[in-house]
Write a structure and sequence with these properties.
The structure holds 2 protein chains of 2 kinds. Chain A is α/β, with parallel strands linked by helices. Chain A has 9 helices and 10 strands. In chain A, the strands form 2 sheets. Chain A has a 6-stranded mixed β-sheet, with helices on both faces. A 4-stranded antiparallel β-sheet of chain A has the order 2-1-4-5, covered by helices on one side. In chain A, helix 3 packs across helix 4, helix 3 packs parallel to helix 5 and helix 7 crosses helix 9. The termini of chain A are far apart. In chain B, helix 9 packs antiparallel against helix 10. The longest helix of chain B is centred in the last third of the chain and has 37 residues. Chain B is globular and about 75 Å long. Chain B starts with a helix and ends with a helix. The chains are: A alpha/beta, B mainly alpha. Chains A and B meet through strand 6 and helix 3 of A and helix 7, helix 8 and helix 11 of B. The complex binds adenosine-5'-triphosphate (ATP) and magnesium ion (MG). Adenosine-5'-triphosphate binds next to helix 2 of chain A. The site of adenosine-5'-triphosphate has 10 residues of chain A, from helix 2.
Chain lengths: ~260, ~260
């Protein structure tokens, strides 16, 4: 099963579209006229310098913060507060030490999907098996390695049963080796599951490895500096990154990321 | 297993050694007779006098234990209820906390006789006094504990659509339990003293009554024996909180040991 080319997918009505989004914190304008969209089954990354408002975008999407202006469209119509199509994964895993690994994952089903406890637990078990965490369900989060904790946190996000995953620097706190390992793991599992994903990252290689499309956000509040399709064939591996196409893309994204800054 | 034995020994040996040292110093100093043996009896005489009078000590210890435990239970129920209200409402927190803190400056010596005057000589005034002095540290432990919840954890729950009650039960309450146990232990050290004070102000039985009677007849050995008994009671209750904590929140010690 090969995915349709990004151009064809973009024609279908996007799962989520943001237009003219603006947000200030007091006198500080963080977002001003931000526009982006994600199609169903598409993996989109946002690259941007620290403090440019990436996390703020997620806060607005999840309803934690209110935008000053702009609209959010879900399948072409304005997002209603009751819609709740997003499952958010924070940068720090915030797994609860008083819950077992399995109970942490089932929290997503219990709270977000309102499933009865037994059903949420069954879903959590199945997810843990899918995520290569079989046999760890009874352990406590602090007994796991950093990479495993991040996988559990992603499982809890998926367990919410929401349409769109919002991943805020999910691998930012990991060491380089574990990070690469998890990026490759996410690539494989995404090939299988085809979630709709919006990923925030500082890591250009990560964006190239995982994404169908990448947005580069400029220093605030100038909005999107660059939008780039990543037309590298899947499945992607470390070999993909070695190719000339990937290197060229990485370079282009890096340049856009550093635009307007002394390099 | 041997690791656990080693840990327990490491915990017990230093204080026991220190106590033995202090006991020996007391014994030697008192035997020297500088203060007179009836004024400061040696530890050995305190122990043997206490042992000889054990029936009466035990009879007077029982009501004190009951007062402490019932007072604590009442205090816990009130403290938990109040802490939930304080957590739910910022205006309640801002108005009640300063008043609570101010109330802590009322000395026990003043409070005890007043409460006996208001509520009589039965169990009630003792329980009220124990509850009053233990209430504050427990409430503070809980309220600070709620506030120690991770911001991201609460944000996560909100993005999942959780309401106040779900967030309280799933995040704030579990986050508060370690602080709660700390508050509980501080409260405990006040509880026995409060019960003895209340008995001092008027009661039929109790360690306070026993101490009063012994000191009225200049039996310093029995006064000190009763003091030792109350110290042992406090220590036993203190140890019990660690046991309950281990059962209630095993994850706390483990996650700290794991450095997470
Ligand atoms: N609740 C808030 N109140 C005031 N200022 C805020 C708030 N949230 C974010 N900001 C400010 O808005 C700006 C953007 O923050 P945001 O967290 O969205 O950045 P970011 O792009 O996610 O950065 P990073 O890559 O470091 O995570 C920052 O200057 C931040 O200090
Ligand atoms: Mg951020």
């Amino acid at each position: 099963m090969t995915p349709p080319p990004p151009a064809a997918r973009a024609e279908a009505s996007p799962a989520i579209a943001v237009r003219g989004l603006a947000k200030s914190f007091g006198p500080l304008p963080v977002l001003d006229g931000l526009a982006l969209h994600v199609a169903r089954g598409e993996f989109v990354s946002i690259l941007g310098p620290s403090g440019c408002g990436k996390s703020t975008l997620f806060s607005i999407l999840t309803g934690i913060e209110r935008a000053d202006a702009g609209e959010i469209l879900l399948d072409g119509r304005p997002l209603e507060p009751a819609d709740r199509p997003f499952a958010w994964m924070p940068q720090r895993d915030v797994l609860f030490p008083w819950r077992s690994v399995e109970q942490n994952v089932s929290l997503g089903g219990e709270v977000a999907a309102g499933l009865p406890r037994g059903e949420a637990r069954d879903r959590a078990r199945a997810l843990l098996a899918d995520f290569g965490l079989e046999g760890f369900g009874g352990m406590r989060p602090y007994q796991l390695s950093g990479g495993m904790r991040q996988r559990v946190a992603l499982a809890r996000t998926v367990a919410q049963g929401r349409d769109i995953l919002l991943l805020d620097e999910p691998f930012g706190s990991l060491d380089a080796l574990t990070r690469t390992e998890l990026q490759l793991w996410l690539e494989r599992i995404w090939e299988r599951e085809r979630w709709t994903v919006l990923l925030i990252t500082h890591d250009v290689r990560e964006a190239v490895l995982l994404s169908d499309r990448v947005y580069v956000m400029a220093q605030r509040p100038d909005g999107i500096a660059l939008e780039r399709d990543i037309r590298l064939s899947r499945p992607r591996t470390l070999d993909t990154l070695r190719g000339a196409d990937a290197a060229e893309l990485e370079h282009e994204l890096l340049v856009a990321l550093h635009a307007g800054r002394p390099v | 297993m041997s690791g656990r034995v080693a840990r327990v020994l490491k915990l017990l040996v230093p204080p026991v050694a220190l106590l033995l040292l202090l006991g020996a110093a007391w014994e030697l100093y008192a035997r020297g007779g500088a203060l007179g043996r009836d004024v400061l009896p040696p530890l050995s005489r305190v122990a043997s006098a206490g042992w000889d009078d054990r029936a009466s000590l035990w009879q007077n210890l029982q009501p004190t234990i009951v007062e402490v435990l019932v007072g604590f239970a009442v205090s816990l129920a009130f403290a938990f209820t109040v802490s939930v209200a304080l957590d739910a409402s910022g205006i309640a927190r801002r108005s009640v906390m300063p008043v609570l803190i101010g109330s802590q400056t009322i000395p026990l010596v003043v409070l005890a006789p007043l409460i006996v005057i208001w509520f009589g000589f039965g169990f009630t005034p003792k329980i009220i006094l124990v509850a009053l002095v233990t209430f504050f540290p427990i409430v503070v432990g809980l309220v600070d504990g709620y506030a120690s919840s991770e911001r991201d954890a609460i944000t996560l729950m909100r993005t999942m659509g959780a309401g106040w009650a779900t967030i309280f039960l799933q995040v704030r309450l579990p986050s508060a339990l370690p602080g709660f146990f700390t508050g509980l232990r501080i409260a405990l050290t006040y509880a026995v003293i409060a019960a003895i004070f209340a008995e001092y102000a008027g009661a039929e039985y109790g360690l306070g009554v026993y101490i009063q009677g012994a000191s009225a007849s200049f039996r310093t050995d029995l006064v000190l024996a009763a003091v030792l008994v109350s110290a042992v009671l406090t220590l036993a209750l203190y140890a019990a909180t660690f046991l309950v904590q281990r059962l209630a929140i095993p994850w706390y010690a483990e996650s700290r040991r794991a450095g997470a």
